[in-house]
Amino acid sequence: MSFLDQIIEPTFVVSESICRRNIEAMADKARRLGMNLRPHFKTHQLHEVGRWFRDYGINTITASSVRMAEYFAQDGWDDITVAFPVNIRETDRIRALSERVKVNLLVENREGIAALEKGLTRPAHIWIKMDCGTHRTGFTADQFDQVDELVEILAKSPKLRFQGFLTHAGHSYKARSREELAAVHAGTMDVIRKFRGRYDTLVPNLQMTYGDTPTCFTMDAFPGVTELRPGNFIYFDWMQWQISTCTPEEIGGVAACPVVAKHPERNIAIIYGGAVHFSKDFIENDRGERVFGKVGAWTENGWTLSPDGPELIAISQEHGQVRTTPEALARMQIGDLLPIAPVHSCLTQDLLRGNTVIV
Known about the structure:
TIM Barrel, elongated, 2 domains, 359 residues, 13 helices, Lyase, Ornithine Decarboxylase, Chain A, domain 1, alpha/beta, eight-stranded parallel sheet, six-stranded antiparallel beta barrel
């Protein structure tokens, strides 16, 4: 493959055909369910990849920071949700962004609301974060007294237009089967039901926006939800395979890493590819060992991945250790590039954003 000849250091390789199939599948599902799809662009963070979504009728997006929202606004996206609690130190940047595009902002305290009320010159759409089980940010269904206070403040604001509630089932990533995913999903939908029961009559046209790839891609019913915000589905990764969200054939991005040394006595190949390229996210294999990536093989048009393939079993800053069989190690040559499906493609793409090849 000619593009491999140009790779000299760890590089993220993206398959346009696989990614487009993944986008089409999610877009078709949202249309079938009658929901808006607002994909999270933190996974790919690239203008070129973002443009593919437009071909499937998608014109609303999610970003994880004001800086990311600014980046995609430069490429013509004009309806952006920043799915991160308002950082009041960025009020000036938020104001500038809101003067260019329709911006949806996330709040969970009085201070954030006050900063926006004071700093914005144009109306903005506001969402309050629900905690549906991840226990990172947001309010649980037994904290309605605190939510009531924020809803009342927003109802009196001439600038801040309360839309509804936003949530992300991040704890779905701890599931390791469809059955466990279904249990997470049921719990999340129960929280949404409780919030709807409380605020449906208090807030006209109450909206519920819901994210996470594992449940959005695999579950079929989202009662009370009006919008879906998955992001990882464009690339997927080896964690998503372990969760049973995707097949190996649906993984749309791999890290190409050079082999720099071989240790036959340990059946180990050393690659140029470590924590600064993959992050330190890991999953555990059937033996309870940490795995930082799954090694595949190149094909004429991309790569192939197998559950039985070699594993990236240890990483330091720049080094990675790939455990393989004696036969496979003998076939490897110093300088070969190995295609490695990351455990968490969002972080790997972020770390290799400056070294990305689309095929």
